[in-house]
Specification:
The complex is a heterotrimer. Chain A has helices at residues 48-55, 105-114, 124-130, 147-160, 177-193, 205-211, 229-234, 239-246, and strands spanning 3-16, 20-33, 37-41, 63-68, 71-72, 88-91, 165-169, 197-202, 214-219, 222-228. By secondary structure, chain A is an alpha/beta fold. Chain A has one domain (34-57, 83-246): Rossmann fold, CATH 3.40.50. In chain A, strands 6-7-8-3-9-10 form a 6-stranded mixed β-sheet, sandwiched between helices. Chain A has a 4-stranded antiparallel β-sheet with strand order 2-1-4-5, with helices on one face. In chain A, strand 4 (63-68) and strand 5 form a beta hairpin. In chain A, helix 2 packs parallel to helix 4 (147-160), helix 4 (147-160) packs parallel to helix 5 (177-193) and helix 5 (177-193) runs parallel beside helix 6. Chain A is globular and about 50 Å long. The N and C termini of chain A lie far apart (37 Å). By secondary structure, chain B is an alpha/beta fold. Chain B has 11 helices and 10 strands. Chain B has helices spanning 50-58, 83-89, 101-104, 111-123, 127-140, 146-151, 159-171, 189-206, 217-223, 241-246, 251-258; strands at residues 8-16, 25-34, 39-43, 66-73, 76-77, 94-97, 177-181, 209-214, 226-231, 234-240. Chain B has a 6-stranded mixed β-sheet, sandwiched between helices. A 4-stranded antiparallel β-sheet of chain B has the order 2-1-4-5, with helices on one face. The two termini of chain C are 34 Å apart. Chain C is elongated and about 75 Å long. Chain C has helices at 3-13, 21-43, 74-110, 112-126, 130-141, 145-171, 175-182, 187-223, 235-244, 249-276, 281-289. Chain C has a single domain, classed as Orthogonal Bundle (MetI-like fold). Chain C is built from 11 helices and no strands. In chain C, helix 3 (74-110) runs antiparallel to helix 4 (112-126), helix 3 packs antiparallel against helix 8 (187-223) and helix 4 (112-126) packs across helix 6. Classes of the chains: A alpha/beta, B alpha/beta, C mainly alpha. Chains in contact: A-B, A-C, B-C. At the A-B interface, helix 5, helix 6 and helix 8 of A face helix 8, helix 9, helix 10 and helix 11 of B.
């Protein structure tokens, strides 16, 4: 496997007013290869979003290392991002906050196209088609679109830049249930079609099961279990994973209470 | 299910905002029974009108809304009541729990204040009696250390504990109908599991009529006894939980269930 | 596309907020004053400084607004005064908006030293009452209209800096700003493309409210003899003249009314703009209804 992204014993802490330093990530090691989908699952506050931010250089790491194609990922300060690091892109959780309300969606997708080394790879129209939207919508503003449509635009913008690593930080959590699996599958399809690796972060193991090859389960800043997604889903080993799986309400109409 | 007077009955409820034509209907003639001792689920996607239905019962529609139909509670049509009479029902006989407990509780008020203020305005009991009642209700919703909890403020609790407190606040006046609008959507699944158990127990023990509004069919399937599915302001399917989930007759319900990742048995290997 | 479609499309572009009565009234007042600025020589019965032998005459058919102590027609002076007070005030506001918001944006976006330096200077200015500081600066520079403008500029940028800074501080954390930075936006691209367009609305609203303040400050300095030098027909200076002639109410009254009308119009316009500049307004209204 061609390893793109490697996290080695990464530790991140935050200072929280009145509570001292909080260890958000306590020694996480992960690796993501080209053409694979790694699911990162955990509940709120487990540190999974902090990992996404750290990989993009948005938060400083205390210890350990994050390397992308063999080079360490540097903190994104005030300066322009290093072109090498621009091969890592992210789709955010809230599609209502991740698009600039004052620019048309077409222009925002162009922002992505501009940094793609392969200029001929996409056009705005082809990307819109790829995310199952009308090419004519390029001239619309974000507030004219629904949440699911906006998230497709955010995905198109990230794909437009031709990323090697695509990170989805809870990209489907604020969408209607019937859209979640579809948008997640769309991310998988586009990431794999472009040869990228996808790090898909979610609290919902049932969605991750559908799109990921491997899954890592996080709790309290640590990875408690990692493995092929089917194995973890069917034979969870860690007690926490078992608890997490048991808590997912089954859609069987039997009225069984989870947990 | 008997059509006795306990619980809530909604009859051809129509809500319109804006110009008076069918296109502006937010609810297009809803019929729904919410019997006592049962959880009635109202499912649907965002914009389907499920929250509007709950709001109509609480009399919390925007001033510009025009309403017709009936909402019968204990033989009284809530839509006919004057605002003052409706206030006597709202928050005491019919209570509501919202999605985000951090937004529905007053951030500057201690838990004791949250629980006892509206209770005392409805019942005129003494402060000490209200406090004692608040302790009992907190015990009922399984908030640990109720004595200590009463002195705390909302920001000192986790989301799950806050939602329990919000439910306690709703239960203070011993309502017979509880409207729960996405009560677990903002919570982690492990916390959600505990709250679903709590709601089930409250329904069974207190004989509450619970109207559960949620888009989450997993929550629906585990908690609701009967399910009504809404789309574009209409109920497209209603029936027994097992039947609606396993053998839906309406194509829209079918598509909702098919779209769920949980019902997709194939792993990534089988996907394009 | 037919012509009718074009008309319909154009009509749809007028934001709903600009079609309210308040908006129409405030815009009408402003448009009327702009017309006065352009047409003052044509509209005025006399020159602004032309003296006649009728001194201190009350409003009459000949002198609608009366005459002052040296026999100048008050109506002509009010109309010509619009050419001084309004453009100068507007320019003042634009200049302080630009200076203040650029400094505030730099302070908010870059933080650290830039923030400390800019905001401490702003605090320093804030520490003095506006009019007194303006008076000091104007007195040091010497009385003239352009010195008054500089004096007002010195005291009027800090509110813009402070508001812009706090808006930028939160806007730079917005996910779309971060998404843009991940796609290689440098600090200035990020500011100009993503941050500033989204914080502009409240700052522009503040500016429209400030047109009134600027006119009043300018008039105040002129009133104190630190601004427009006689015989410049500046409204504040005219009020100042008129106050000395207590029994001839029209000398101070009409320029006072002119000040009031334009201040009011800009204040109302500020409210209207606040609603219409928000791209979500239409959606919010709908969202609230649903």
């Amino acid at each position: 496997m061609n390893v793109l992204l490697e996290l080695d014993d990464v530790r991140v802490s935050y200072r929280q007013p009145g509570r001292g330093r909080i260890q958000a990530v306590r020694g996480v090691s992960l690796s993501l290869g080209a053409g694979t989908v790694l699911g990162l699952v955990g509940e709120s506050g487990c540190g999974k979003s902090t990992i996404a931010k750290a990989v993009c250089g948005l938060v400083p790491i205390d210890d350990g290392s994050i390397t992308f194609r063999g080079e360490p990922v540097r903190r994104l300060g005030l300066r322009r991002r290093d072109p090498h690091a621009m091969r890592i892109q992210m789709v955010f959780q809230n599609p209502y906050a991740s698009l600039n309300p004052r620019r048309t969606v077409g222009r925002q997708i162009e922002d992505g196209l501009r940094v793609n080394p392969d200029q001929a790879a996409w056009s705005v129209a082809s990307l819109l088609e790829e995310v199952e939207l009308e090419p004519a919508w390029a001239s619309r503003y974000p507030h004219q679109l629904s949440g699911g449509q906006r998230q497709r635009i955010a995905i198109a913008r990230a794909i437009a830049s031709g990323p090697d690593v695509l990170i989805g930080d809870e990209p489907i959590a604020s969408l209607d249930a019937s859209l979640q699996a579809r948008v997640a599958l769309l991310m998988r399809k586009l990431a794999l079609a472009t040869g990228a690796g996808l790090l898909f972060i979610s609290h919902d193991l049932s969605v991750v099961r559908v799109i990921a090859d491997e899954v890592a389960v996080m709790n309290a800043g640590e990875i408690v279990e990692q493995g092929r997604v089917q194995r973890v889903w069917e034979h969870p080993e860690a007690a926490y994973t078992q608890r997490l799986l048991a808590a997912i309400p089954a859609v069987d109409g039997l009225g069984r209470l989870p947990g | 299910m008997t059509a006795d007077d306990s619980g809530l009955r909604i009859r051809s409820l129509r809500v319109t905002i804006g110009r008076d034509d069918a296109e502006n209907d937010i609810l297009r003639g809803i019929d729904l029974e919410v019997p006592a001792g049962q959880v009635t689920g109202l499912a649907g996607e965002s914009g389907s009108g499920k929250t509007m239905t709950g709001m109509s019962v609480m009399g919390l529609l925007p001033a510009a809304a025009r309403v017709s139909g009936q909402i019968l509670f204990e033989g009284t049509d809530l839509l006919e009541l004057s605002p003052a009479r409706l206030n006597a029902y709202r928050g005491s006989r019919i209570a509501m729990v919202f999605q985000d407990p951090t937004a529905s509780l007053h951030p500057m008020l201690s838990i004791e204040g949250q629980l006892t203020d509206h209770y005392r305005s409805h019942t005129k009991v003494s402060k000490a009696a209200a406090r004692k009642h608040a302790l009992e209700v907190l015990e009922k919703v399984q908030v640990p250390d109720p004595e200590i909890a009463l002195r705390k403020y909302p920001h000192q609790f986790s989301g799950g504990q806050l939602q329990r407190i919000a439910i306690a606040s709703a239960l203070m006046c011993s309502p017979s109908v509880l409207i729960a609008d996405e009560p677990t959507t903002a919570l982690d699944v492990t916390v959600q599991a505990g709250l679903l158990r709590l709601l089930r127990r409250l329904c069974d023990d207190l004989g509450l009529a619970i109207l559960l509004v949620t888009h989450d069919l997993g929550v629906m399937s585990s908690l609701a006894d009967r399910i009504a599915v809404m789309r574009n302001g209409e109920i497209v399917e209603a029936g027994d939980r097992y039947q609606v989930i396993t053998a839906p007759t309406d194509p829209y319900t079918r598509s909702l269930i098919d779209a769920l990742p949980a019902t997709q048995t194939t792993g990534p290997e089988a996907t394009p | 596309m037919t012509a009718l479609d074009a008309v319909r499309r154009r009509r749809l572009r007028v934001p709903a907020a600009l079609r309210t009565p308040v908006a129409v009234v405030s815009l009408a007042i402003i448009v009327a004053w702009v017309a006065v600025i352009v047409l003052a020589p044509v509209l005025s019965p006399a020159g602004p400084n032309a003296q006649s032998f009728d001194r201190l005459t009350a409003p009459s058919a000949e002198h609608w607004f009366g005459t002052d102590q040296v026999g100048r027609d008050v109506l002509s002076r009010v109309l010509h005064g619009a050419r001084v007070s309004i453009p100068v005030a507007a320019m003042l506001v634009v200049a302080s908006l630009v200076i203040g918001s650029i400094l505030g944006a730099i302070a908010g976006y870059f933080g650290r030293v830039a923030d400390e330096v800019i905001m401490r200077v702003a605090d320093l200015v804030f520490a003095f009452p506006t009019i007194i500081l303006a008076m000091v600066v104007a007195a040091v520079l010497g009385p003239s209209l352009s010195n008054a403008v500089i004096a007002i500029l010195v005291v009027s940028w800090p509110p813009y800096a402070r508001v812009t800074r706090s808006l930028v501080l939160s806007a730079r954390q917005a996910e779309y700003v971060i998404a843009g930075r991940l796609l290689g936006n440098g600090p200035f691209t990020s500011l100009s493309k993503d941050v500033l367009p989204n914080v502009a609305a409240p700052v522009v609203v503040l500016a429209t409210l400030d047109v009134g303040t600027a006119i009043l400050l300018l008039s105040g300095l002129s009133f104190l003899g630190l601004g427009a030098v006689p015989p410049t027909p500046e409204w504040g200076a005219m009020v100042s003249d008129g106050v000395q002639q207590f029994s001839s109410w029209w000398i101070a009254g009409f320029p006072g009314l002119a000040i009031m009308s334009i201040v009011l119009a800009f204040n109302l316009l500020g409210d209207v703009l606040r609603d219409s500049l928000d791209p979500h307004t239409a959606e919010t209204v709908k969202g609230r209804a649903l």
